[in-house]
Amino acid sequence: MFITFEGIEGTGKTTQIAKVRDYFEAQGREVFLTLEPGGSRVGRDLRKMLLHVDNKDLTPITELFLYLADRAQHVAQVIRPELEAGKVVLCDRFADSTVVYQGYGRGLETKVLHQLNEVAVDGLWPDLTVVLDIDPEIGLKRATLRNLEEGKAKEEGRFEAEHLTFHKRIREGYLTWAALHRDRIRVVNASASQDEVFDRIRDAIESALTEKK
Ligand code: TMP
User: Fold this and answer.
1) How many domains does the chain have?
2) Which residues have a Cβ under 8 Å from the Cβ of 168 and sit 6 or more positions away?
3) pLDDT digits over 146-185, tens only?
4) Phi, psi of 11 (to 5 degrees)
5) In this structure, what CATH number is given to the domain that contains residue 14?
6) What is the distance in A from the centroid of ligand 1 to the CA of 207?
7) Could you identify the atom of ligand 1 that is nearest to the CA of residue 105?
8) Distances (CA, A) of 192 to 13, 98, 135, 146
9) Domain limits at 207?
10) Which atom of ligand 1 is nearest the CA belonging to 9?
């Protein structure tokens, strides 16, 4: 089973992914955790390039192709082999981030982005995508605090430095895109307590598993 997690910064994705891992492990399943950008060896260099504050001059198209390159390598070298080995793969961000950030966020054509994603993922779409939804003002406060605590403000602070209006567009983008792909994408309200959010994610996973049977 392949599950991806999406949302603006500071929705608590990392915490929830860890809970989902525990849930599957408790059932005796082997779980592989990964992320984009940066899930493959080459991808780790691409991630540094993409997220460093000094690289504000990347054009939207350059950025797009770096994310797609990261994804193609990640699918071929990491995600597909792990799934074939029978593991549950949980991925922090995937193809929908490109449609939402580069499309709804930066203004590139979402239809074209979807087609480019089709090339990058090479037929491997998630069984389920969970979008964690939160008010961007709350999300950004959480993300900025986390970066400061982890001393990552410079290396990974490029997106958090964007204006609030950009993050509002991203949130709306996720909701619009999710409504167009209800069969795969589930929106979960992430402003509730961590346990309540997890309960909703677990429900989404269980109904996705039932549909697969
Ligand atoms: P994060 O993994 O710490 O959330 O940071 C990744 C950032 O990269 C996040 O702001 C969203 C952005 N991003 C894109 O713009 N397009 C993409 O395709 C992906 C995977 C991430």
Assistant:
1) 1
2) 136
3) 878 887 766 665 655 667 899 999 999 999 999 999 999 9
4) -90, -5
5) 3.40.50.300
6) 27
7) 15
8) 13, 27, 12, 19
9) 2-212
10) 4
pLDDT of residue 157: 59
Q: Tell me the pLDDT of the chain averaged across its residues.
A: 93
Position of tokens 């991925």? 91
Q: Are 65 and 96 in contact (CB under 8 A)?
A: no
Q: Which residue, 29, 90, 105, 95, is CA-closest to 67?
A: 95
Q: Is the CB of 93 under 6 A from ligand 1?
A: yes
CA distance 56 to 4: 27
Cβ neighbours for 210, distance < 8 A, ≥ 6 positions apart = none
Total H helices, total E strands in the chain: 9, 5
4 lines ligand 1 (CB under 6 A): no
